[in-house]
Specification:
227 residues, alpha+beta, Ubiquitin-like (UB roll), five-stranded mixed beta sheet, two-stranded antiparallel ribbon, 25% helix, 18% strand, disordered C terminus, binds FE2/S2 (inorganic) cluster
Length: 227
């Protein structure tokens, strides 16, 4: 066990846990987006930022990734922390104008609008939860984060048809912004609201869904229809 201080309160917490875990277990609220307890930390969104006392002064760290240590002093809601979270939320509001959870989080910090030019649409914050869940929990590996920078997106690997998706819906269930909307009707499956769509067919042997690339109306035909 180690002794730490959060917002002026002395606490004894488990060794090797993160600041986020120590805070949550002791009733301190820290917002998160890319963290999920079933998947561990990822460090992509930085909304969980907190301020700690370091040897060279106060610094901001991602609480989901930073381990506690003896004597650590943490502030979860200092002015610097609030300003950092507001900036992150403004960027997310601009990037994902359709994500309700981002609007709700922003409103908590008094933000209705963003200073940054907004995209026309978007819900995906690229937190990677869907991809990590598909790979690490389900073991299917049907989706990945592809491309870089502004073009980064969730998609089947190489933006190609994949037979790996088993229609389990884990990605949809765990997505914090509801960017993934799985619909299965007439053997046609839409995996992502804005990105890849591909057809599935239930396997007669294992009863799971697999991609049916040969049938009329397969993903290739669908892509042609969309173009
Ligand atoms: S929740 Fe910690 S970086 Fe996203």
């Amino acid at each position: 066990m180690v002794n730490i201080n959060i917002n002026g309160q002395d606490l004894t917490v488990r060794e090797n846990c993160t600041i986020l875990e120590a805070a949550l277990i002791n009733g301190f609220y820290i917002p998160t987006l890319c963290y999920h307890e079933a998947l561990g930390f990822y460090g992509a969104c930085r909304i969980c930022v907190v301020e700690i006392a370091a040897p060279r002064g106060q610094i901001l760290v991602a609480s989901c990734a930073y381990p506690v240590s003896e004597g650590l002093i943490v502030k979860t809601d200092s002015e610097r922390v609030i300003n950092a979270r507001k900036l992150i939320l403004e960027l997310l509001l601009a990037d994902c104008p359709d994500a309700e959870i981002i609007k709700i989080m922003a409103a908590r910090y008094g933000l209705i609008e963003t200073r940054f030019p907004p995209e026309e649409e978007g819900k995906c914050i690229l937190c990677g939860i869907c991809v990590r869940a598909c790979h690490n929990l389900v073991g299917a590996g049907a989706i990945s984060l592809i491309k870089r920078g502004k073009n980064k997106a969730v998609s089947p690997p190489y933006e190609s048809v994949t037979s790996a998706c088993i229609s389990c819906g884990t990605c949809e269930t765990m997505c914090p912004t509801r960017a993934i909307d799985i619909k299965v009707f007439d053997r046609i499956k839409s995996l992502h609201e804005y990105e890849g769509r591909f057809h599935t067919q239930r396997c007669n042997i294992c009863s799971k869904y697999h991609v049916d690339n040969e049938k009329p109306g397969s993903v290739n035909n669908w892509i042609e229809e969309l173009q």
